[in-house]
Design brief:
Distance between the termini: 24 Å
CATH class of the largest domain: Alpha Beta
CATH superfamily of the largest domain: Metal-dependent hydrolases
Radius of gyration: 24 Å
CATH topology of the largest domain: TIM Barrel
Structural class: alpha/beta
Largest sheet: 8 strands, parallel
CATH architecture of the largest domain: Alpha-Beta Barrel
Number of domains: 2
Number of helices: 16
Bound molecules: iron/sulfur cluster, zinc ion
Number of strands: 17
């Protein structure tokens, strides 16, 4: 299921066949469509559509093209409209210095005023920029500095992620600007432009990955290839998702699920995913057997939302071995079966052993992702017990410095670091493939870690993405 996070289906372009367009969208698996207004009239039209169709949600606001129509009264009207239950954001708002249909100074003022409406209403913003990326980011930064509470009030105090503040739609900025926005709590969204030949946005997209983006058609504009130049419509979203999946060698389902999760989180649309004991990424099946952990890493969202790639892993009950086995059903359908959730699997060593035995008997491959503390957790050297059951193990090295290790994982650094390294050395004796990983955080000395892992331990090294 997909979400088209930006489609202007109130436009005249759809006057004669709007119902067909919306039916085609639903047939193509479009779960929701977000329709942003561009002034008071079209905001009302977006709202009318949202009243008529359950799966349509509206945003209200003045597009920079229409900034000259905005005044105290019309902005008050936008704020009133924003109280409607189907309004999920303020937009589209922003700056357009390409066409300059409204004077630039006025565009900036109206943009600022509308961000303040969003702040008062605790809604996200949908931002349009054209030849004005740096200026738009500056306006948003200034507004954020003036009110740091925006979108923080629903923020789960345990989560390291705050409630997202908005989306820069049809994003054409560079990678540095994209990262700046992601760190400020924004998403960026990609329309059909990614499908165009030699599209410059692809470089940025490759840099930031697909974990923090939304999909949009920007209908009726920007129809994706091979429909370029034609009227666009929400049912074309899969063409964009396919292209992004191709770029990242991911599955289209992964792209659809992650981007839908992001859109729902941003716009506050229910229902979110229900907790999973198994989840599929690319062609591997992951097992989420516990959410308990002996550590409490600063970069881990286990106590927050516990979402990985759009999957909700916040299980309330730990599954039995039988439940996991039933859920796997046929291990040969996957490249590998991986013990990996928002918890330390070796806390449930018996389940690992039972499930892995069954997977091996049924022709599957098994991987264990672990913090390497299993010997302390279980009070014995557990590695020989995994021989023959686990084909590969990935151990979080996190840091080669025990002090930093302790700070990152909020454990006794000396004791646990030593145990983890010892665990890795044991794995090398008993498990065919061993990898040690660090997170791509700036403060981690990755090169030194690589040397240590490859030279001193003699196993493979990998950097896990951070953010
Ligand atoms: S060891 Fe893994 S599950 Fe445990 S807190 Fe750290 S990142 Fe989270
Ligand atoms: Zn638009």
């Amino acid at each position: 299921m997909y979400i088209d996070s930006h489609a202007h289906i109130f436009f005249e372009d759809y006057k004669t066949d709007r119902d067909d367009v919306l039916q085609r969208a639903q047939d193509a698996g479009i779960e929701c469509i977000i329709v942003p207004g561009t002034n008071v009239e079209t905001s009302k039209e977006a709202l009318e559509l949202s009243e008529k169709y359950d799966f349509i949600y509206a945003c209200v606001g003045f597009h920079p093209h229409d900034a000259s129509k905005a005044n105290d009264e019309t902005l008050r009207e936008i704020e009133e409209l924003s109280k409607h239950k189907k309004v999920v954001g303020i937009g589209e708002i922003g700056l357009d210095f390409h066409y300059d249909f409204s004077p630039r100074q006025q565009q900036i003022e109206v943009f600022e005023q509308q961000i303040h409406i969003a702040i008062r209403r605790n809604l996200p913003i949908v931002v349009h920029t054209r030849e004005s990326m740096a200026e738009s980011i500056a306006v948003v930064e200034k507004a954020l500095a003036s009110d740091g509470t925006w979108r923080e009030q629903y923020h789960n105090e345990h989560s390291r992620y705050s409630t997202p503040k908005g989306v820069f739609h049809c994003f054409t900025g560079d990678a540095q600007q994209a990262w700046q926005l992601l760190e400020m709590g924004f998403y960026v969204s990609y329309p059909g432009i990614v499908t165009f030949k030699n599209s410059p946005v692809i470089e940025t997209l490759k840099d930031i990955g697909y974990d923090h983006i939304l999909l949009e058609t920007d209908s009726p504009y920007l129809a994706p290839a091979p429909l370029r130049g034609k009227r666009n419509e929400p049912s074309n979203i899969p063409l964009i998702a396919n292209k992004i999946a191709e770029i990242f060698r991911a599955s289209t389902e992964d792209v659809a699920r992650i981007t839908s999760y992001n859109a729902k989180k941003l716009f506050g649309i229910e229902p979110m995913d229900s907790p999973r004991i198994i989840y599929k990424l690319r062609n591997s099946l992951y097992l989420n057997i516990t959410i308990r952990c002996n550590a409490d890493c600063v970069f881990c969202d286990r106590k927050g939302e516990a979402v990985i790639k759009g999957y909700n892993l916040k299980i309330e009950h730990e599954p039995t071995s039988q439940e996991v086995i039933q859920a796997i059903s046929d291990p040969t359908k996957y490249d590998e079966i991986v013990f990996c959730g928002y918890g330390e699997p070796t806390i449930r060593l018996d389940v690992i052993k039972e499930v892995a035995t069954w997977v091996k008997e049924h022709g599957g491959k098994v991987r264990l992702n672990t913090d390497g503390h299993g010997n302390i957790i279980n009070n014995r050297n557990i590695v020989p017990e995994l021989a023959g059951l686990v084909d590969s193990v990935s151990i979080s090295l996190n840091s080669i410095d025990p002090k930093q290790y302790g700070e990152l994982m909020r454990v006794d650094g000396e004791r646990f670091h030593k145990a983890m390294v010892e665990f890795a050395r044991e794995c090398k004796k008993y498990i065919p493939e061993v990898t040690m990983t660090v997170i791509g955080m700036d403060e981690i000395e990755k090169e030194k870690a690589k040397q240590f892992v490859e030279k001193e331990i003699g196993v493979a090294f990998r950097v896990r993405p951070y953010f």
